[in-house]
Design goal:
This protein is α/β, with parallel strands linked by helices. It is built from 13 helices and 8 strands.
Length: 302
């Protein structure tokens, strides 16, 4: 099995899930969105049904239909990764198997949320999913939302499972944990930054790229920043990071922890209307949208 970054690339874009005015999933708009990020070269790979896609607010059948829709829209143009996260292990298993049947490249599985399992429970969760599929697995660690962390010792054990090949590390809460992971993981295990504001910090710790919801809007600039870093143009990479930071930081206006409503607003401005998020998330306010617009104009995106 190839190293994951050789297969998936540097910039993995998790798609939002478009909704109609009545709250139903707009599968046609989702297909168009997937095609847009590919055609604009904003991504190396696409993630379907991740946190940015509000998987937590979707039914099991809706999630499977997301998988089918994006597969049909994208074909083999870029690798596609199925978000198979679930609080209940069997649900994650079922989603991973569905992704394999549909021909997905890999699956991304988040740490079980709400239940706050022990490290042993976290290990068993991922082990059961890994043993249920032949797909490569990208672990997903985001303690900010799940309430549980994949401790380095647990990660070391998980990397012994043959198809556990990488991790998306949120990084904001534990900014040096990528280094802790590097100490316990084999050299072919990869770390992707899961926080748009922390990309360079994770790259300097051995990270290979980013899972970036904001790259649905500025994926070309994210690619350029990462390319500059790996080519040794560190000053240029730093300058790009500072420009992007203001944009990404604007997703958390007014104490928002979840960036999805502002990501949606930015897509509305730079592409097409993708609808409001599902409750309990609230759409961006007019004041928040005005700040986003100011930054996008300053960046020359609008």
């Amino acid at each position: 099995m190839e190293q994951m970054d050789a297969v998936l690339g540097r910039v993995l874009v998790p798609l939002i899930t478009p909704f109609r005015e009545d709250g139903a999933v707009d599968y046609d708009r989702l297909a168009e969105l997937a095609q847009m990020v590919v055609e604009r070269k904003f991504c190396d790979s696409i993630i379907v049904g991740g946190t940015t896609g509000e998987f937590i607010s979707l039914t099991f059948e809706e999630r499977k239909q997301l998988f089918r829709t994006v597969r049909d829209a994208v074909g083999k143009r870029v690798p596609i990764i199925a978000g198979a996260g679930a609080a209940y292990t069997q649900h994650a298993v079922d989603l991973a198997r569905e992704a394999e049947e549909l021909g997905y490249t890999a699956t991304m599985v988040v740490t079980p949320y709400y239940l706050k399992p022990t490290q042993a429970g976290i290990y068993q969760h991922f082990k059961m999913v890994a043993e249920s599929t032949k797909l490569p697995i990208l672990l997903y660690n985001i303690p900010l939302f799940t309430g549980s962390n994949i401790d380095p010792e647990t990660l070391g054990e998980l990397t012994k499972l043959p198809n556990v090949k990488g991790i998306k590390e949120e990084a904001g809460i534990n900014p040096t944990q990528a280094s802790d992971y590097a100490l316990v993981a084999p050299k072919d295990f990869v770390v992707y930054c899961g926080d748009d504001t922390m990309v360079l910090q994770v790259l300097t710790q051995g990270g290979v790229g980013v899972v970036s919801g904001g790259s649905m809007i500025i994926g070309d600039r994210m690619k350029k920043m990462i390319d500059c870093y790996f080519k040794g143009n560190v000053v240029e990479a730093q300058n790009l990071q500072i420009q992007l930071y203001e944009f990404f930081h604007a997703f958390n206006q007014n104490g928002r922890v979840n960036p999805i409503p502002l990501v949606r607003a930015a897509i509305d401005m730079t592409w097409r209307d993708v609808g409001a998020p599902r409750l309990p998330l609230l759409p961006a306010t007019e004041t928040e949208k005005a700040e986003l617009k100011r930054i996008l104009l300053k960046m020359g995106v609008l």
